[in-house]
Amino acid sequence: MEVTAAMGAKVLERFPAGSPRGSWPAEECAARRRAQGEAATVVMDLQSDAFLVVVPARDED
């Protein structure tokens, strides 16, 4: 896991943007995480051309 400093978020999963299904796998992953009570969201990382599933970083991270 990594923390993106600019966003103050922890990256849970990465999905390539070039996937035939686009952002769907990332959105599905985030939905599963939200169903488990995590505040997961999907963002696009332009530098790596990937969709990231992120949650807000906690102080202890």
At a glance:
The chain starts with a strand and ends in a 5-residue tail after the last strand.
Biggest sheet character: 4 strands, antiparallel
Question: Shape, please?
Answer: flat
The H-and-E topology, N to C, reads as EEHEE
What is the total tally of β strands? 4
User: Helicity, in percent?
Assistant: 10-25%
Spatial strand order of the main sheet? 1-2-4-3
Q: What portion of residues belong to β-strands? A: 35-45%
Class of secondary structure makeup: alpha+beta
Sequence-ordered SSE layout with sheet pairings:
Blueprint: E1 2-4, E2 9-16, H1 24-35, E3 41-45, E4 50-56
Antiparallel strand pairs: 1-2, 2-4, 3-4
Keywords:
61 residues; alpha+beta; four-stranded antiparallel beta sheet; 1 helix; 20% helix; 38% strand
Give a written overview of the molecule.
20% of the residues lie in helices and 38% in strands. The protein has one helix spanning 24-35, and strands at residues 2-4, 9-16, 41-45, 50-56. The chain starts with a strand and ends in a 5-residue tail after the last strand. The chain is built from 1 helix and 4 strands. It has a 4-stranded antiparallel β-sheet, with helices on one face. A hairpin with a 4-residue loop joins strand 3 and strand 4 (50-56). With 61 residues, the chain is an alpha+beta fold.
